[in-house]
């Protein structure tokens, strides 16, 4: 704490210079590092991305931003001057720790390949220029890899996903006829939000069960995106589009539980969990239809830790009573907590008493040193974004979980708070009094989220769930009555020529 106090007395620019080394050891372009999936031609993603690590001339990794304006520059272009393709390359995102995130979105396929030049000032970084030999496919090019194992190796998919292993432990065999008879009766009534899918020969078919199935556009788009990239197994399954997990039978019950696929799990349910529609959609629409996504958030984490406002922060809807308690606590303890409700739906009668807070841009959340994560109707789907920020997350104890929570530990990746928020103020005071430890937990959570929530890891996770499911089916999936084909989006404005030799399972 003594060193931190000294730094606070220094001008910010001098503090930065102390952190990265002396001016005699500036950034060295040749010694700096570049790595990541965006430097591999075979990794097809909606937005391709890779990382840079600034290294000084003494060979030391910088641990915060180099002083002055960012001098990293990236140019992505076709290898052949005859191939004119649209490629959007925004400025590198400064992650405020000496590393940078580079993104680019292709709007056409290049046959010859890509040339990626990474410069610092006028010098090439690391092994720049990088040559990605073609063809390099863009997101909407339908050209699936015929060998799923090769595809998984290309993406460096993990060999095991603990949550998937746990989810399927209750389902050694999946009886499709039993599900066909049971799911519509149990979950397909007027209030239902379930969609029945069949994937056959890499084509997707579906029928809606219930009235509230508009969110099928999210499950459609990720399944279509996967099918464009890799040959999917034949399978027949049910996706729950609602907030709450559906299957509450225990493994010992007769009849036993059935594998409904959901975006959120709970301690008292047996649903198979996929990444939430929110992080999935933001991954697919990054740099196009959304502002906040798993990549952009990493370069918009607010001031450095030392310059953040030393308060806990919350903004959100009134989707849980504890959120109202949070606002009341904020009114009583404004020196510790800034919490507000931005929209009333469930507790409209409380608006006059508690007031309505103005909407804030999500990136502005990170002006505050501590973020309070309180459940909504189920798990708060903002949690992945909060973890990727540069603030300490105070996480409410919850029976709900997302696909990656299994890897997280209290006091290592976040600070736990009780369900009823009775210890929240105490935990905020602890964080203020133990600044170095709070900063360490925030950084550990951020680094873990950066690893677990990389967009290519989401694709790995989706595929592994479908694969595990398909392996357990006791009969062949079929296109059932009432199902309609879900076509791939028409992308006739873009060049797409698939060079892979396709095989049909019908011929095997």
TrEMBL record:
Respond yes or no to whether keyword Glycoprotein is given for this record: yes
Query: Mind telling me which GO cellular component terms the entry cites?
Result: endomembrane system
Tell me the SUPFAM superfamilies matching this sequence: E set domains (SSF81296)
What GO molecular function annotation could you give as one example from this UniProt entry?
UDP-xylosyltransferase activity
Filamin repeat copies, ranges:
24-134
Residue span, Glycosyl transferase CAP10 domain: 231-476
Which reaction equations make up its catalytic activity? Answer: L-seryl-[EGF-like domain protein] + UDP-alpha-D-xylose = 3-O-(beta-D-xylosyl)-L-seryl-[EGF-like domain protein] + UDP + H(+); L-seryl-[EGF-like domain protein] + UDP-alpha-D-glucose = 3-O-(beta-D-glucosyl)-L-seryl-[EGF-like domain protein] + UDP + H(+)
- Provide the alphabetized UniProt keywords: Endoplasmic reticulum, Glycoprotein, Glycosyltransferase, Signal, Transferase
Q: Please give the family membership noted in the entry.
A: Belongs to the KDELC family.
**What's this protein's function?**
Protein glucosyltransferase that catalyzes the transfer of glucose from UDP-glucose to a serine residue within the consensus sequence peptide C-X-N-T-X-G-S-F-X-C. Can also catalyze the transfer of xylose from UDP-xylose but less efficiently. Specifically targets extracellular EGF repeats of proteins such as NOTCH1, NOTCH3, FBN1, FBN2 and LTBP1. May regulate the transport of NOTCH1 and NOTCH3 to the plasma membrane and thereby the Notch signaling pathway.
| Protein name (Swiss-Prot/TrEMBL) | Protein O-glucosyltransferase 3
Per the record, the gene is POGLUT3
């Amino acid at each position: 704490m003594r060193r931190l106090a000294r730094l606070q007395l220094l001008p910010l620019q001098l503090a930065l210079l102390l952190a990265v080394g002396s001016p005699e050891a500036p950034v060295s372009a040749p010694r700096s590092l570049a790595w990541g999936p965006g430097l591999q031609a075979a990794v097809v993603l909606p937005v391709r991305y890779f990382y840079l690590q600034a290294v000084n001339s003494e060979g030391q990794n910088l641990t915060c931003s180099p002083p002055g304006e960012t001098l990293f520059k990236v140019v992505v272009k076709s290898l052949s001057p005859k191939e004119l393709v649209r490629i959007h390359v925004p400025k590198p995102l400064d992650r405020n720790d000496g590393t940078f995130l580079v993104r680019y979105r292709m709007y056409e396929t290049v046959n010859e390949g890509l040339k990626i030049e990474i410069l610092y000032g006028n010098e090439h970084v690391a092994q720049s220029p990088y040559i990605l030999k073609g063809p390099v496919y863009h997101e909407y090019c339908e050209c699936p890899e015929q060998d799923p194992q090769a595809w998984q190796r290309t993406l460096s998919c993990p060999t095991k996903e603990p949550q998937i292993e746990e989810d399927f432990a209750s389902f050694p065999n999946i009886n499709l006829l039993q599900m066909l008879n049971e799911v519509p009766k149990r979950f397909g009534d007027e209030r239902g939000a379930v969609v029945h899918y069949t994937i056959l020969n890499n084509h997707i078919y579906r029928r809606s069960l219930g009235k509230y199935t508009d969110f099928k556009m999210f499950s459609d788009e990720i399944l279509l995106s996967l099918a464009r990239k890799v040959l999917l197994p034949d399978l027949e399954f049910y996706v729950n589009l609602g907030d709450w997990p559906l299957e509450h039978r225990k493994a010992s019950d007769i009849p036993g539980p059935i594998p409904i696929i959901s975006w959120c799990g709970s301690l008292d349910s047996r649903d198979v969990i996929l990444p939430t529609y929110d992080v999935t959609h933001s991954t697919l629409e990054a740099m196009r239809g959304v502002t906040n996504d798993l990549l952009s958030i990493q370069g918009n984490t607010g001031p450095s830790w030392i310059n953040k406002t030393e308060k806990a922060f919350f903004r959100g809807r009134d989707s849980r009573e504890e959120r109202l308690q949070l606002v009341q606590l904020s009114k009583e303890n404004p020196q510790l907590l800034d919490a507000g409700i931005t929209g009333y739906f469930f507790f409209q009668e409380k608006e006059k008493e508690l007031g309505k807070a103005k909407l804030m841009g999500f990136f502005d959340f990170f002006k505050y040193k501590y973020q309070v994560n309180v459940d909504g109707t189920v798990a708060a789907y903002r949690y992945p974004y909060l973890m990727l920020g540069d603030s300490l997350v105070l996480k409410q104890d919850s029976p709900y979980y997302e696909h990656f929570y299994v890897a997280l530990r209290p006091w290592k990746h976040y600070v736990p708070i009780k369900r009823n928020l009775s210890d929240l103020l105490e935990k905020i005071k602890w964080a203020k009094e133990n600044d170095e430890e709070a900063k360490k937990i925030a950084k550990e959570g951020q680094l873990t989220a950066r690893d677990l929530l990389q967009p290519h890891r989401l694709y790995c996770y989706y595929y592994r769930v479908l694969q595990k499911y398909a392996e357990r089916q006791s009969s062949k999936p079929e296109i059932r009555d009432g199902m309609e084909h879900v076509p791939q989006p028409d992308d006739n404005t873009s060049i797409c020529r698939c060079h892979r030799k396709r095989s049909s399972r019908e011929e095997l």
